[in-house]
User: Which sequence fits this backbone?
């Protein structure tokens, strides 16, 4: 039985002292709980190659995640773990001192844990520079796979999946109830934390081995040991930058949400009523599909769902919106409701600290691209972005690359004509526009469809033309871009081998469906993955120059930064400088990366459009 004492009036009872050997996560672990036990075991932990840490909070919701119940610290072999409760000032001081003395700190999912430790005053800025995230490395070594701690424990350490600790408890227990109510008075609560620390500590060696095995399968642009280590350092530097931004938080203008809803709610209600009278519910896409079919607005070429129903994908409906009022109303209501819901997430996000703390998931996608969650800022409609205010005194500037995926494809494919056109200041889609005599938006759809592996039938449905017309259009456009066309053919052939490689040497396995390789994704992985490499190299250099604190967001191919003119000039210069590896690849051909700054003012979004409620037209949202 653990010796229990009361720590603070608002905290549950915690162990005062416990030191014992426990069988946890496949090994025998010396576990110490409380200050006295920690002082005995910490010298062993701090003398190891690295230290692992994990935390337990009251939950993952914004109001709960910032309240820490316990912190586990373990040795690199995972066989010595100390558990402390920072709600006790003595234990909090010991935690802070211990983390300050670490030379290398490992966390699995630092995007969640590290900002919480920073805001709790337990993790100093200096220690953040020594932080490594085993989840980020796992995403690099197993792109697109299951890389949570439990999955890594099974895949890399052979530890079988175990049921959650509340599975056999009497009563109605759930993950939320467990996080909220369980504490260090339960042995299985301690065991769960100890297991997480022990597994995290032991992941380093097998993860690096897995990364080496994947790198050895590179069909081209292979990397050596030094370059592979640099890639890990690059992603780690980006992780540290985003951890700091998450911890600092972003200010929000909650009045913006109220004003937006007040202005547009009546219009949306009227549109919804018109839809209802036609038998259409904006919240039920199947009613829109049935209405389209009943009114003869679609034919056999229209894209269908897996169940055979007409698709209501936005890209298809937009082609009808200009001549069918019901479709225009449907899209407008759907867009507005989406905007309302995203604005509502901000209100919940600020509940704990008064700030928004978006979680940036480095290397989250198979291509390596980042994602943002809690809230999902990458998915915010333009109209919702104005709710976020600048954390900088001088406001914000957006700097993005112009048509970066086409530029990357032209560079990798060594498309001389297209690269010269771009260097001459022409639109990257200009050759396609001239070759086919089509508007820019059509040319863009065709080019990107080719890079994404979209087939002729799907392209025809998107454009509202016959398959023969789509093929003819595609052939005309890619005849003007022979280098890009050759890249698509080459990457598709290469993908049949199961792997492709991005510009920086990251190897990406090709997705399988029913056991068959989806080789058509090869070009997409190479181009999108290499476009991410450009962003990653820019962020790495920004961090190296000490400018990381001036970056508010990295969204797709855009950086939102401090409007300080010196910062803007330096970041734009970094983004306009191609990586040496790409310069070497194109040889004597011109290589131009256009990094275009755009002032945003004191909030995120485009002035006069998404952020100005007096001029914004919600029905035009998708054009922004």
Assistant:
């Amino acid at each position: 039985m653990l010796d229990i004492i009361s720590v603070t009036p608002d905290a549950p009872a915690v162990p005062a002292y416990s030191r014992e050997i426990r069988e946890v996560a496949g090994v025998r672990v010396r576990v110490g709980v409380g200050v006295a036990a920690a002082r005995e075991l910490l010298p062993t932990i701090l003398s190891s190659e690295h230290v692992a840490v994990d935390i337990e909070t009251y939950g993952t919701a914004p109001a709960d995640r910032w309240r820490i119940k316990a912190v586990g610290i373990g040795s690199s072999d995972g066989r010595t773990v100390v558990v402390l409760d920072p709600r006790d000032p003595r234990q909090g001081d010991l935690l802070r001192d211990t983390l300050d003395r670490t030379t290398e700190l490992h966390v699995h999912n630092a995007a969640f844990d590290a900002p919480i430790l920073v805001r709790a005053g337990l993790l100093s800025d200096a220690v953040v520079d020594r932080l490594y995230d085993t989840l980020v490395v796992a995403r690099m070594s197993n792109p697109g796979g299951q890389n949570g701690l439990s999955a890594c424990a099974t895949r890399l350490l052979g530890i079988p999946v175990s049921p959650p600790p509340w599975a056999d408890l009497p009563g109605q227990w759930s993950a939320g109830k467990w996080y909220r109510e369980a504490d260090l008075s339960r042995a299985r609560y301690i065991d769960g934390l100890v297991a997480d620390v022990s597994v995290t500590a032991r992941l380093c060696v097998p993860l690096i081995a897995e990364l080496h095995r994947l790198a050895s399968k590179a069909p081209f642009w292979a990397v050596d040991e030094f370059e592979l280590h640099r890639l890990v350092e690059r992603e780690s530097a980006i992780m540290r930058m985003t951890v700091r931004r998450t911890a600092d938080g972003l200010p929000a203008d909650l009045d913006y949400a109220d004003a937006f809803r007040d202005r547009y709610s009546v219009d949306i209600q009227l549109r919804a009523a018109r839809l209802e009278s036609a038998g259409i519910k904006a919240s039920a896409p199947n009613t829109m599909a049935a209405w389209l079919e009943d009114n003869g607005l679609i034919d056999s070429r229209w894209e269908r769902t897996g169940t055979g129903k007409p698709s209501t994908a936005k890209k298809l409906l937009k082609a009808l919106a200009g001549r069918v009022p019901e479709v225009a109303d449907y899209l407008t209501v759907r867009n507005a409701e989406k905007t309302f819901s995203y604005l509502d997430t901000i209100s919940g996000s600020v509940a704990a600290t008064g700030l928004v703390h978006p979680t940036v998931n480095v290397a989250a996608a198979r291509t390596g691209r980042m994602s943002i969650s809690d809230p999902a800022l990458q998915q915010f409609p333009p109209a919702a972005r104005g709710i976020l205010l600048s954390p900088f005194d001088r406001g914000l500037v957006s700097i993005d690359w112009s048509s970066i995926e086409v530029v990357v494809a032209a560079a990798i494919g060594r498309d001389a004509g297209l690269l010269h056109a771009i260097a001459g200041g022409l639109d990257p889609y200009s050759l396609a526009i001239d070759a086919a005599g089509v508007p820019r938006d059509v040319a863009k759809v065709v080019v990107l469809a080719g890079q994404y592996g979209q087939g002729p039938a799907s392209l025809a449905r998107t454009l509202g033309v016959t398959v023969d017309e789509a093929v003819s259009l595609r052939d005309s456009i890619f005849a003007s871009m022979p280098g890009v066309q050759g890249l698509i053919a080459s990457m598709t052939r290469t993908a049949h081998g199961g792997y492709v490689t991005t510009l920086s040497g990251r190897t990406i396995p090709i997705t399988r469906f029913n056991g068959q390789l989806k080789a058509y994704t090869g070009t997409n992985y190479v181009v999108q993955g290499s476009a991410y490499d450009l962003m990653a190299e820019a962020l790495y250099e920004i961090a190296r120059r000490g400018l990381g604190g001036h970056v508010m967001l990295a969204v797709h191919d855009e950086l939102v930064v401090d409007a300080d003119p010196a910062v803007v000039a330096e970041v734009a210069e970094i983004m306009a400088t191609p990586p040496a590896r790409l310069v070497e690849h194109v040889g004597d051909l011109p290589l131009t990366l256009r990094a275009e700054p755009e002032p945003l003012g004191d909030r995120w979004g485009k002035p006069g459009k998404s952020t100005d409620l007096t001029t914004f037209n919600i029905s035009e949202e998708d054009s922004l």
About this structure: Residues 144 and 323 are 41 Å apart (CA to CA). Confidence is low (pLDDT under 50) at residues 1-14, 611-624. DSSP finds 26 helices and 18 strands in the chain. The first strand starts at residue 3 and ends at 5.
